[in-house]
Amino acid sequence: MIYELKEELRIEYWKLAKKKLTKNQYKTMRLLSTGLTQSEVATEMGITQTSVQKCLKGNSVYPDGVKLNYGGIILKLRTAAAKDQTIQKLLKRINDLTS
After folding, report:
1. Is residue 34 within a helix (H) or strand (E), and if so which, with residue range?
2. H/E element holding 78?
3. CA-CA distances (angstroms) from residue 30 to 41, 53, 87?
4. In the prediction, which pLDDT does 76 show?
5. Quick one: average pLDDT of 11-32?
6. How far apart are CA 41 and CA 28, in angstroms?
7. pTM of the model
8. CA dist., res. 31 & res. 44, Å (int)
9. Which of the four pLDDT bands, split at 50, 70 and 90, describes residue 6?
10. Gyration radius of the chain's alpha carbons
11. Does the chain have fewer CB atoms within 10 Å around its N or its C terminus?
12. Residue 2, class by beta-carbon neighbours within 10 Å (0-12 exposed, 13-18 middle, 19+ buried)?
């Protein structure tokens, strides 16, 4: 049962990624998910490793001395997944079965 729920969660997560990320962010995520390193992804995409890093973590600004990140894959998906009812229901069901 848990395996099926995790698989369903994986599918929903990739759907969310396709909907919320830019084409380059989605491609970066896909390549990283195959096990490539950031350097290998950079070579594959014709960009620098720093660009891959920024694609993942976004850019940082420091208004009033406080670090603020925006635009990266991690933050975009974390925020979107927290608002996605299907993903939240799956996470709750998995948690209920494992606790």
Report:
1. none
2. helix 73-83
3. 10, 14, 19
4. 95
5. 97
6. 7
7. 0.84
8. 9
9. very high
10. 16
11. C
12. exposed
* Average pLDDT rounded to a whole number, residues 46-74: 90
Structure tokens at 44: 């594959």
Backbone angles phi, psi at 91, to 5 degrees: -60, -40
Amino acid at position 41, single letter: V
The residue to which tokens 């014709």 are assigned:
46
Q: Can you spell out the DSSP letters for 52-73?
A: HHHHHH-EEE-GGG--EEES-H
**Measured between alpha carbons, how far is 33 from 41 in angstroms, rounded to an integer?**
10
3-state secondary structure of 26: helix
Residue 42: both structure tokens together: 């950079």
Residues 6+ apart with CB under 8 A from 80: 16, 19, 20
pLDDT average, residue stretch 2-11: 96
